[in-house]
């Protein structure tokens, strides 16, 4: 038992195969059990995973992946082309309701070429496919498990190829993993991991401090001083791919004016937010995508300039009345409902409170609506767009900027919470996907990100850093910007 | 002489019941004072301490006590004293509002059931029974889930879940009264149903109803605060004690005041209300003076 | 026991007899702490109880009778009460004993029976165990022996099937049976002194008669002394050798019961006695007679004035009831199925003429009140016809019903309960007038003042509340309220039962006066035969919802025909000390239940005419 | 026994009515279960598919009939949040809640009844004042706040007790204390009132008149008589304890059904909420029934099968 790692994590696992679960963090945990064909390294490089190399056909519609040999699932069955086809078929079938399927873009099918070669096809040319296949939604689950459990598979303990295997799932709060002694990448040193799900950050930290747990995902930044000087613990951190943005409701006539949107962006003191809400473990967002994503390049800083904001409002015809509320031709600025989730990302609700405070100060009447993530998403998709709510979310798409840009700012997409509609962006996205030369593709993403930012479809807020407190009794945890934290190398310290 | 000793409480209206604090007994008097202090702090306080409870100043977050902020500031640098005082308003509105609504509805239902009898009585009381077959907090949580979140739905939920007890007592008392000789006498002299209800029945079960109500306010205050704490009720930027505790709990290591201040405020208010309830019962119903 | 005639307070002189008194109370003063102050409730009471003798303490409600007896037993809360004086039981002063020693006295040397058989038994312990407990506390006997002994005593107090009923609980017994259990419990240890505090007040006359007899018989068998507390002069005459009269916490007179009845001196004693003329004193009179009221302060007696004949039989009866039947369904179960019915009133017919008083008598639950309520349509009877002052009562719609109520009004048993405690007397009395919209408020007040004056209350009480009045005053207020509508008929449902004897007489006189001057007809419901005899023109005797005998008062009282009537008459305690030795047969019977299964139809009844207007049911 | 069956039936009808009301109310509020089921990034087609697959597009009455039909077969649907059958989720959590409730209640009953009896016997003494004040105070403390305070102090600051989980006795200490604190006040007050009332009852005077000693009076007559309302309140409180469970479990991360309720409500997990209404209702009814039966054992007056 000494050699079992006990980890406290902030949200509970809902489904036991990666394609069935929503939150990136949970997907990331399951990554230690189920692997993908490609992987993105912590420094944002695309690397081989279960596939060793890949190429695209001349018509750019067919990709050929060569699979790693000598890999088998923990139930003993081999990992081969049949397994890949089975998994792709499963996630593509609509009746299986795979939440994050959109991440795979125009992927349309899979075909076995030989035991260790598969062909994946896309409906349109899609240069992003290898990167997207690194998303957990495309994790490889043993066909034997599919056979055994059928439609119940999301709730059952399936087999993967990863360094750990699922041992048990105890309602409601605990997942136990044991080491896979036959892992192709070398068996882990620890015997297993117990994950306990605890919502409250203080409770998690208490567990760590009292020795109930060895690792605390994530440390609330404000609690950092409590662990910092303590030799028994250390704080690891990694900049996240996430970008906190607040989508502006383009449906409101007032929001049609870019000046208003810019003014709203200038009314926020990002430095103060980073320093006081996140205790310094966040940076002001300077692009429309997060710094951890492929294709990120700093566009420009957004200063805190309330005077300029006021000027811009005035240019757009809005000036403060005696109550300090913006008014245009005797009509008050429409009241904004600021929708945010609670506890999904460290600091999300406090950030929402503070930002809405700034908005109020700028003369925009703001009400808060903070919800549990599931309800939050439902409201963001259904209500927010119609009711003109401001939706704050920390986007963190599959390591790649294009993925985010082309989903959350393209009108027809359900994730375009603000209802932002810009035909130029659709053209740009098509161009990115049709560019198969890696550097050119990245440059296109950088450019698009920059001009999207300049159109202010959202209030761009912060890029957070994830902090994990661990006991110094264990080393070797590898954190990842995209929350695919790897426990494979964790080992007891000397 | 003996007759006077047997006579129930003096009848001349609410004013007289509350007139002399002395008659509330020691506990009741303490309760009255506590509730008075809280009311003063919550109603008059903000007029004296004119600080905007929503005014945030991140650079001043979680500072201790100072002249500018007598109780310190919260995680967004807002003035804790101002927030505590404003927060109480919503808490009290919640407590009193829900009880008032519950009382009005419960008395109406109970009295109607008792006076109409027959299937109306059966249906109404069966409905009340089914409400009673689920524990209160669970009921409130489910009601909130059904009605939606926000302070108004919360008050409605609290009112619905505290209504059955009023309906039951009203029903029971009204039934007793319906059989009492003075109500029979009123019927015999030709009173209509309305007159019976408003002149003879409702005023005469004021005592048990008011006693229950005075305890209920405290209970609803706590339940409401708990629901706010769980994020099922009021939402920021509203200020409410339960909500303040919820917001402050993450910082209870760094700034215990954030949860201590609203928590103590809640406790003192509820304590005051409960003691006052004791006093009111003491006053209204000398027979049960020692029970409960 | 050579007590001198006309002994005055305090009565200490009977110690000259051969045997020393069993209980001797000297200058007993009991105070209660009320609002931090000591208030003397019983002052300077002294009396003796000789071996084998029965001493009765009488007095109106609140005069300190119970406090006296509780003081003797030291059952008052020591924190709230203080007892001074001497209580010598066989020479030993109980007041100086420790609590522990006192426990040895209670239930052993002195036993006590309380007024309320309903609440004085432990509801969750079987009656058998409650009796054997009394034995095991004081005797060193085994549980089995105690059980055997308890059963023996239960049989002695005429509990049928004592063996099987040993393990039953008080709620399974009727009131009379419970009181017998209480007696059994008190007598189990064969105490030398029994204190009985109003042991029969809560019981029906017939049951009361049995209990009194039982006590007498057991007293003779065991030879114990009895301290008997009551407010009923009839009971006093029947049970006691000597008698002590209490008034406002003091003893005002004591002496041999026979002497006291014949020539009690204290005005209060005289008021008491005159208020309960012995049954039969109305012999050979056709009309009601007022009570000779004695003023408690002065002792002056008002002679009982003759009453003129107020009955007008020439016109149609103001109230005619035909075949009235009222059954209350007993439902149960989930679906509210009918399981039976209380046949509260069965096929009752009678007439009431203008200016007449018809009394309904019978034991508790026989349907007297239900008839009253049916006539007023406060309940809706199953069938029958009621003609009231031109109205077809059973066929009225809502509005006519309200109008009909101008013709008939009701006076209830409890004058306090029949006044809304939150309404001033003025509002209460004017209320019917205003409800019926007979005139403006000013007129109503004027009329109310006039009527209050009429019932002997000054008009300046209009702004006071009911609780500020005495019981008698309150009943006058209620009567005034009933008169506001100038009704033709007044239903008086136990209208004087809750009043003290002396007040009772006054209120009865008032009713007779009103009948005289206003020609009101009374439907007088009462279980108090003495009062009924005084005030009625005719009497109807009810048994299990049916009228078993009806006729002119003199005929029914002097020539009762139906067995139940005879039983009822003989059970009434007669305030005539000469009958002290009389004993009735003690039957273990109980009041019958009027509950019948579904579908039960009572047999056809026929009546036999005894004399003019006197009918008796043939069984 | 028919009495019991009848009460059971009555209770079931109550729960059924309540459930029906909740079922329809839930469907009247805005919110789209299909979107919830589909997850954040699902496409519109997926959502439509789910809608038809689960019958969300059908009339409410039809959905209701379907639900009842399934429920009769023991199928209460799957949780939207965890996709597991809700009954399985509830049944796995129920023991945790039950054990916590019983431990907490045990502590509360022990302290409450003892305190109440002492306060009643030593009425108006210093001990009485102290006990009664404690009782009022305990009733007035917001339990979620108390839970936070205790947790912060004993688990977070001092680290004496675990801050989450449900494994050993040490895990029970804090949640049980919070639950007991919420109950002890009421139990103490009821006990005190009941004992005092019984002590002033006529039949106690009768027993004293029999010569019973104070001890005998207390044990044989007063306590037995006084215990009925206390049991009623205790059993009622066990039902109401699920209130406490909601609070305590959430703060202490206790894996019971109280927390499950809050989580389900926050996530608008309707199948779970529906099933919880039924479960809480049934538990409440059973406990009340048990209380009635227990009281009937003690108080013969309640035994009569009417
Ligand atoms: N515990 C007490 N504290 C204060 N006053 C009391 C107490 N018990 C009785 N009294 C008062 O003492 C007086 C005498 O009461 P007691 O019960 O002896 O009257 P009683 O003659 O037995 O009357 P009743 O016929 O109604 O039983 C009453 O005025 C009553 O109010
Ligand atoms: N509303 C009712 N529902 C059911 N049963 C009733 C109702 N009212 C009276 N009864 C029953 O009808 C019977 C007659 O009652 P009623 O009150 O007329 O008797 P009573 O002769 O006036 O008795 P008492 O002398 O005790 O007043 C009783 O058995 C009573 O229990
Ligand atoms: Mg008395
Ligand atoms: Mg009656």
From TrEMBL, chain B:
Keyword hit for Cell membrane: yes
Gene Ontology cellular component list: plasma membrane
GO biological process: peptide transport; protein transport; transmembrane transport
Membrane topology: Multi-pass membrane protein
Subcellular localization(s) per the UniProt record: Cell membrane
Boundaries of every ABC transmembrane type-1 domain copy: 88-277
InterPro entries associated with the record: BP-dependent_transpt_permease (IPR050366), MetI-like (IPR000515), MetI-like_sf (IPR035906)
Family from the record: Belongs to the binding-protein-dependent transport system permease family.
Protein name as it appears in the record: Binding-protein-dependent transport system inner membrane protein
Transmembrane segments: 24-49, 90-115, 151-170, 255-276
Pfam family for this entry, one: BPD_transp_1
Signal peptide: none
Organism: Celeribacter indicus
TrEMBL record, chain C:
Subunit structure, interactors included: The complex is composed of two ATP-binding proteins (GsiA), two transmembrane proteins (GsiC and GsiD) and a solute-binding protein (GsiB).
Catalytic activity: glutathione(out) + ATP + H2O = glutathione(in) + ADP + phosphate + H(+)
EC main group: translocase
Organism of origin: Celeribacter indicus
Superkingdom: Bacteria
InterPro entries xref list: AAA+_ATPase, ABC_transp_ATP-bind, ABC_transporter-like_ATP-bd, ABC_transporter-like_CS, Oligopep_ABC_C, P-loop_NTPase
Descriptive protein name: Glutathione import ATP-binding protein GsiA
Domain ABC transporter: 23-273, 319-569
Pfam families named in the record: ABC_tran, oligo_HPY
CDD domains assigned to the protein according to its UniProt record, in alphabetical order: ABC_NikE_OppD_transporters
GO cellular component: plasma membrane
Disordered: annotated segments: 1-20
Compartments, record wording: Cell inner membrane
E.C. no: 7.4.2.10
Listed GO MF terms: ATP binding; ATP hydrolysis activity
Main localization (coarse): membrane
Biological role: Part of the ABC transporter complex GsiABCD involved in glutathione import. Responsible for energy coupling to the transport system.
Family: Belongs to the ABC transporter superfamily. Glutathione importer (TC 3.A.1.5.11) family.
Keywords annotated in UniProt: ATP-binding, Cell inner membrane, Cell membrane, Hydrolase, Membrane, Nucleotide-binding, Repeat, Translocase, Transport
Membrane topology recorded in Swiss-Prot or TrEMBL: Peripheral membrane protein
GO biological-process terms attached to the record: peptide transport; transmembrane transport
Keyword Protein biosynthesis: no
Automatic annotation (TrEMBL), chain D:
GO BP: transmembrane transport
Keyword Ribosomal protein among record annotations: no
Alphabetized UniProt keyword annotations: Cell membrane, Membrane, Transmembrane, Transmembrane helix, Transport
Main location, first listed in the record: membrane
SUPFAM superfamilies, per the entry: MetI-like
Keyword Membrane: yes
Membrane topology category: Multi-pass membrane protein
InterPro entries attached to this UniProt entry: BPD_transp_1_N, MetI-like, MetI-like_sf
Domain of life according to the entry: Bacteria
Gene Ontology cellular component annotations, sorted alphabetically: plasma membrane
Subcellular locations according to the entry: Cell membrane
Residue ranges of every copy of the ABC transmembrane type-1 domain listed in the record: 94-291
Transmembrane segments: 12-30, 96-121, 133-156, 168-188, 226-252, 272-298
Similarity comment text for this entry: Belongs to the binding-protein-dependent transport system permease family.
Protein's name in the database: Glutathione ABC transporter permease GsiC
């Amino acid at each position: 038992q000494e050699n079992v790692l006990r980890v406290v994590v902030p949200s509970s696992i809902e489904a036991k195969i990666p394609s069935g679960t929503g939150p990136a963090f949970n997907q990331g945990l399951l990554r230690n059990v189920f692997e993908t064909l490609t992987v993105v390294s912590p420094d944002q490089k695309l690397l081989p995973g279960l596939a060793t190399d890949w190429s695209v056909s001349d018509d750019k519609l067919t990709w050929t992946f060569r699979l790693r040999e000598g890999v088998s699932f923990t139930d003993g069955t081999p990992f081969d082309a049949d397994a890949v086809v089975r998994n792709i078929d499963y996630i593509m079938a609509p009746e299986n309701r795979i939440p994050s399927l959109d991440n795979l873009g125009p992927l349309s099918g899979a075909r076995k070429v030989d035991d260790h070669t598969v062909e994946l096809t896309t409906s349109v040319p899609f240069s992003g496919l290898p990167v997207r296949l690194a998303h957990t939604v495309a994790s490889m689950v043993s066909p034997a498990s599919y056979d055994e459990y059928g439609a119940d598979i999301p709730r059952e303990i399936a087999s993967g190829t990863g360094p750990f295997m699922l041992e048990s799932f105890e309602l409601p709060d605990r997942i136990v993993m044991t080491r896979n002694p036959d892992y192709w990448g070398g068996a882990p040193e620890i015997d297993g991991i117990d994950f306990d799900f605890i919502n409250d950050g203080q409770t998690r930290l208490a567990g760590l401090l009292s020795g109930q747990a060895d690792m605390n995902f994530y440390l609330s930044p404000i609690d950092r001083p409590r662990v910092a000087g303590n030799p028994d613990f250390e704080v690891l951190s990694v900049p996240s791919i996430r970008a906190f943005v607040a989508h502006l409701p383009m449906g409101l006539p007032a929001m049609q004016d870019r000046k208003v949107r810019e003014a709203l962006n200038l009314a926020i003191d990002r430095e103060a937010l980073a320093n006081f809400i996140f205790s310094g473990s966040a940076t002001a967002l300077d692009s429309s995508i997060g710094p951890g994503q492929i294709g990120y390049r700093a566009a420009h800083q957004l200063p805190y300039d309330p005077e300029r904001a006021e000027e811009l409002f005035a240019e757009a015809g809005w000036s403060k009345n005696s109550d300090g509320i913006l008014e245009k031709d005797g009509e008050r600025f429409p009241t904004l409902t600021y929708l945010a989730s609670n506890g999904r990302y460290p600091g999300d609700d406090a950030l929402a409170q503070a930002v809405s405070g700034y908005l109020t100060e700028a003369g925009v009447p703001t009400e808060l609506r903070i919800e549990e993530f599931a309800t939050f998403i439902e409201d963001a998709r259904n209500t927010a767009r119609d009711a003109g709510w401001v939706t704050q979310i920390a986007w963190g798409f599959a390591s790649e900027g294009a993925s985010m840009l082309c989903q959350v700012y393209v009108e027809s997409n359900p994730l375009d919470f603000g209802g932002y509609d810009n035909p130029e962006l659709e053209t740009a996205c098509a161009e990115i996907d049709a560019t198969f030369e890696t550097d050119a593709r990245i440059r296109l993403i950088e450019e698009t990100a920059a001009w999207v930012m300049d159109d202010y479809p959202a209030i761009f807020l912060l890029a957070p850093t994830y902090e994990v407190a661990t006991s110094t009794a264990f080393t070797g945890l590898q954190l990842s910007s995209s929350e695919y934290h790897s426990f494979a190398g964790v080992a007891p310290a000397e | 002489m003996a007759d006077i000793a047997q006579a129930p409480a003096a009848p001349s209206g609410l004013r007289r019941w509350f007139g002399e604090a002395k008659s509330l007994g020691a506990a009741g008097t303490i309760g009255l004072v506590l509730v008075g202090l809280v009311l003063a702090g919550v109603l008059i306080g903000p007029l004296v301490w004119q600080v905007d409870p929503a005014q945030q100043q991140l650079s001043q977050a979680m500072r201790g006590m100072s002249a500018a902020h007598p109780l310190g500031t919260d995680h967004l640098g807002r003035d804790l004293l101002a927030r505590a005082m404003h927060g109480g308003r919503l808490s009290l509105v919640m407590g009193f509002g829900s009880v008032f609504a519950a009382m009005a509805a419960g008395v109406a239902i109970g009295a109607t059931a008792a006076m109409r009898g027959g299937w109306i009585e059966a249906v109404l009381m069966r409905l009340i029974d089914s409400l009673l077959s689920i524990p209160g907090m669970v009921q409130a949580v489910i009601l909130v889930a059904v009605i939606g979140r926000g302070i108004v739905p919360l008050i409605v939920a609290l009112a619905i879940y505290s209504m059955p007890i009023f309906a039951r007592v009203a029903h029971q008392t009204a039934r007793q009264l319906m059989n009492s000789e003075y109500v029979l006498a009123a019927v015999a002299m030709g009173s209509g149903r309305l007159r019976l209800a408003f002149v003879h029945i409702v005023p005469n079960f004021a005592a048990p109803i008011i006693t229950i109500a005075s305890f209920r306010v405290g209970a609803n205050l706590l339940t409401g605060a708990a629901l706010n704490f769980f994020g099922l009720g009021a939402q920021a930027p509203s200020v409410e004690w339960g909500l303040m505790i919820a917001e402050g709990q993450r910082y209870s290591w760094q700034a215990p005041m954030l949860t201590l201040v609203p928590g103590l405020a809640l406790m003192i208010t509820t304590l005051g209300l409960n003691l006052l309830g004791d006093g009111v019962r003491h006053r209204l119903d000398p027979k049960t003076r020692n029970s409960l | 026991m050579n007590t001198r005639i006309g002994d005055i307070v305090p009565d200490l002189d009977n110690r000259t007899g051969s045997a020393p008194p069993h209980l001797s109370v000297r200058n007993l003063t009991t105070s209660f702490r009320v609002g931090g102050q000591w208030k003397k409730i019983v002052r300077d009471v002294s009396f003796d109880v000789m071996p084998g003798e029965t001493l009765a303490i009488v007095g109106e409600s609140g005069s300190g009778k119970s406090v006296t007896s509780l003081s003797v037993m030291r059952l008052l809360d020591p924190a709230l009460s203080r007892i001074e004086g001497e209580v010598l039981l066989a020479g030993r002063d109980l007041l100086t004993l420790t609590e522990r020693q006192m426990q040895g006295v209670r239930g052993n040397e002195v036993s006590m029976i309380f007024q309320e058989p309903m609440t004085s038994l432990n509801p969750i312990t079987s009656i058998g165990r409650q009796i054997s407990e009394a034995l095991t506390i004081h005797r060193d006997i085994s549980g089995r022996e105690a059980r055997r002994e308890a059963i023996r005593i239960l049989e002695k107090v005429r509990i049928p099937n004592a063996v099987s009923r040993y393990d039953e609980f008080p709620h399974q017994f009727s009131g009379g049976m419970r009181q017998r259990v209480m007696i059994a419990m008190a007598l189990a240890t064969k105490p030398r002194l029994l204190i009985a505090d109003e042991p029969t007040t809560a019981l029906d006359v017939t049951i009361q008669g049995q209990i009194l007899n039982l006590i007498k018989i057991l007293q003779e068998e065991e030879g114990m002394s009895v301290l008997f507390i009551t407010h009923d002069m009839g009971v006093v005459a029947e049970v006691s050798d000597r008698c002590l009269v209490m008034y406002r916490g003091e003893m005002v007179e004591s002496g041999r019961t026979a002497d006291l009845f014949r020539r009690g001196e204290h005005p209060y004693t005289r008021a008491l006695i005159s208020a309960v003329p012995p049954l039969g004193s109305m012999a050979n009179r056709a009309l009601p007679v007022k009570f000779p009221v004695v003023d408690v302060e002065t002792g002056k007696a008002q002679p009982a004035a003759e009453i003129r004949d107020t009955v007008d039989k020439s016109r149609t009866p103001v109230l005619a009831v035909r075949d009235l039947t009222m059954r209350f369904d007993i439902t149960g179960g989930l679906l509210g199925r009918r399981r039976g019915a209380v046949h509260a009133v069965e096929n009752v017919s009678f007439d009431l003429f203008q200016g007449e008083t018809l009394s309904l008598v019978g034991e508790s639950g026989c349907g007297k009140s239900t008839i009253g309520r049916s006539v007023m349509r406060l309940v809706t009877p199953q069938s029958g016809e009621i003609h009231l002052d031109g109205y077809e009562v059973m066929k009225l719609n809502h509005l006519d019903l309200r109008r009909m109520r101008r013709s008939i009004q009701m006076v209830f048993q409890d004058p306090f309960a029949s006044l809304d405690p939150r309404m001033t007397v003025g509002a209460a009395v004017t209320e019917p007038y205003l409800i019926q919209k007979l005139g403006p408020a000013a007129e109503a007040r004027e009329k109310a003042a006039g009527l209050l004056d009429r019932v002997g209350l000054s008009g300046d009480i209009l702004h006071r509340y009911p609780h500020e009045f005495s019981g008698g005053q309150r009943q006058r207020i209620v009567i005034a309220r009933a008169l506001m509508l100038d009704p033709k008929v007044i239903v008086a449902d136990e209208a004087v039962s809750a009043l003290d004897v002396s007040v009772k007489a006054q209120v009865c006189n008032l009713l007779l006066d009103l009948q005289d001057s206003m020609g009101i007809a009374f439907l007088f419901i009462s279980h108090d035969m003495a009062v009924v005899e005084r005030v009625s023109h005719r009497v109807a005797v009810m048994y299990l919802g049916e009228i078993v005998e009806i006729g002119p008062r003199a005929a029914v009282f002097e020539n009762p025909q139906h067995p139940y009537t005879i039983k009822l008459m003989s059970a009434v305690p007669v305030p005539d000390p000469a009958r002290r030795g009389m004993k009735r047969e003690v039957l273990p019977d109980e009041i019958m239940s009027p509950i019948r299964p579904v579908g039960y139809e009572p047999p056809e009844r026929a009546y036999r005419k005894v004399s003019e207007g006197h009918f008796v049911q043939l069984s | 026994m028919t009495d019991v069956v009848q009460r059971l039936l009555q209770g079931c009808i109550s729960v059924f009515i309540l459930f029906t009301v909740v079922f329809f109310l839930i469907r009247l509020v805005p919110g789209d279960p299909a979107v919830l089921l589909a997850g954040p990034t699902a496409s519109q087609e997926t959502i439509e598919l789910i809608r038809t697959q689960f019958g969300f597009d059908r009339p409410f009455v039809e959905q209701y009939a379907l639900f009842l039909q399934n429920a009769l077969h023991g199928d209460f649907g799957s949780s939207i949040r965890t996709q597991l059958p809700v009954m399985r989720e509830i049944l796995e959590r129920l023991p945790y809640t039950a054990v916590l409730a019983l431990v907490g209640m045990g502590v509360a009953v022990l302290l409450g009844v003892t305190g109440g009896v002492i306060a009643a016997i030593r009425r108006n003494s210093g001990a009485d004042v102290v006990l009664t004040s404690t009782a009022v105070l305990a009733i007035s403390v917001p339990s979620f706040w108390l839970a936070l305070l205790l947790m912060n102090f004993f688990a977070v600051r001092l680290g004496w007790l675990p801050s989450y989980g449900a494994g050993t006795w040490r895990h029970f200490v804090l949640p049980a204390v919070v639950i007991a604190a919420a109950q002890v006040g009421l139990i103490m007050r009821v006990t005190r009132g009941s004992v005092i009332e019984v002590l002033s009852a006529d039949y106690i005077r009768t027993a004293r008149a029999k010569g019973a000693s104070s001890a005998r009076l207390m044990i044989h007559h007063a306590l037995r008589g006084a215990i009925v309302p206390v049991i009623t309140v205790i059993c009622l409180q066990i039902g109401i304890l699920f209130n406490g469970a909601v609070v305590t479990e959430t703060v202490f991360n206790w894996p019971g059904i109280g927390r499950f309720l809050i989580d389900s409500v926050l996530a608008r997990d309707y199948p779970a909420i529906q099933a919880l209404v039924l479960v809480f209702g049934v538990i409440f009814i059973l406990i009340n029934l048990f209380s009635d039966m227990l009281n009937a054992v003690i108080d013969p007056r309640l035994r009569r099968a009417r």
